[in-house]
Amino acid sequence: MAGSIEIEGLTKSFGGFRAVDDVSFVAEDGKITALLGPSGSGKSTALRMIAGLERPDAGRITIAGEDQTRTSVQERRVGFVFQHYALFRHMTVQQNVEFGLRVRKEDPAKRRARVLELLDLVHMTPFAERYPGQLSGGQRQRVALARALAPQPKVLLLDEPFGALDAKVRHDLRRWLDELHRELGVTSLLVTHDQEEALELANKIVVMHEGRVEQVGSPGDVYDNPTTPFVAGFVGSANVLHGSVVDGHIHLGSFRLPGASHLQDGASATAFVRPHDIRVAGGEGDVKAVIERLASLGWLTRVTLRLDDGDTLVAHVPNEELHGAVEGDRIGVDLRNPKAFLAPEHVAEEDEIPPGEAPVLREATGPVD
Amino acid sequence: MGAPPTERMKPIPAGDEDLTRLRNADARRGRLVRGVMLAVALVYVSVLLLAPLAGIFIYALRSGLGTIGRTFSQPDVRHAFLLTFVIMAITVVVTTFFGVIVALVLARDHFPGKRLVSALVDLPLAVSPVVVGLMAVLLFGRGGWFEPFFASRGIQIMFALPAMILVTIFISIPFVIREVVPVLQELGMEEEQAAWTLGASRVQTFFRVTLRNIRWGLLYGIALSAARAIGEVGAVLIVSGTLTGKTETATLYILRAFDQYQDQQGYIVALTLATFSIVLLIGIETFKRRRTAEAD
To answer: What is the pTM of this model?
Structure first.
């Protein structure tokens, strides 16, 4: 039932536009792999090629050890879950789940047993006779998952499966999918633009940007050791600071940050500092800043800091570490674990602020909890 | 200023009363306009649609059931109805089969000249049926482009059933396509793609998913096609040669009946056709309602 997915040099253009450009990665047997990237990064196109819904211009797709580059959708035996469910609207829940077994001419008794088993698995047994139009979004996606799993696919491909659901349902369904995966162990490839979703669900994350793979790694790896500025900014939120390299440090107006020893002296560099890597250090911190705004995030407080040179930083500080500081207080802060990269041309245009000026916080796409 | 809150509140209910009065005046004017429009609509529909229908009913039934029986016992009347239904049946089958294919292509594929094809589909609606008949004569009549080919094989096209079917099909082409294309566009392809990933072949997907999803729109198109085929007279008149008992359809029979002062029989045949059309109309309305209901 299970099997790995191996992708080598996958490429696809639409007209003159390279949607997917030389993409290679492996999704290991029995694991969840996430293809993470912003919209237009080519992740859905890559997934659709793996399913056989699009033809690649070049590259190789191996599923469970078999070369599937040129085979038809039907032959690949993959389970596919669509963002907008794509349930058959004129069939009941039960008929939807049964469809894959029926078209493959399975024995009716076995079919029936399998459908009941799957309805139970996705907790939809009481709704077996309902039509998709009578179900909520979360219920529909559970039916879609049961339908995809019914013919026992070698791998499960999920295209933004929670994208059309509201936040609460999305969270619940995510947790539920995680449990389900532990139970079934089917190799899964999940496409998402939500970094939180990828970090929570996946064993391995493939970060995509403009049709290319930016970084492949475990969630911890991708979060803690981003290898490109794009990954540093896209996975998790970060303050983006621009400065120049002197002696392995990045000089930024009134202070300097370590961690640039791999960069040449005099180069212009970009440093990414996560909000939770900024610590309030009372009077001792290296960097002096005025608290401009405090906003509660529950057990954390979001602190907007104004530096002496006028730039702002955003920090997420545990409430008890604030020690009663209020807006307008002047405090010292420590900036830890900065990730320094050579400033590429295009970072400036994305941030709307030229290098050397105000640092910018890239907000996380999800809430911090 | 400085007044207690209760007094400051006062102007607001007063303003409300003004507003209510204005609203009432507006509503009265609105009711008047609506009433006039309703009256116009009812008179228009009844004078132009219901009165002629009632007229046919009264004239056809005035002479009593005996005349009806005598009319339907005439071999040429029976033959005329048979011919009309044969032409309708073949037209419906052909326009449905090819209509669905054309609709699938227009809704799903992108190719150069697609807009032109889409516009061409509507051509039969714009061209007078008489002109359609003339075009058929040019192609299949004496000296026509295709005439030698069929004549040498002894196949009679002109003044025979084949030409009558051809022109009727031509005229009925747009209906199925026009009804099915928007339904397909609205459906999108995800359900079909889901079916493929579940192992369904293209044929299985068409019959189990696509056809089920377009059925009400398709039936609506078929009903329109059938109604058009039954009522066709202009093009058929030109290509049939109106040979009594041979190439005379029900509509052509009506024309001849009035020519030969057999009004009574003409009315009876007309009433039969009208009744059939009303049945189709009820079908059409039902399909239309189902189609819109399922679109939600």
So the answer is: 0.81
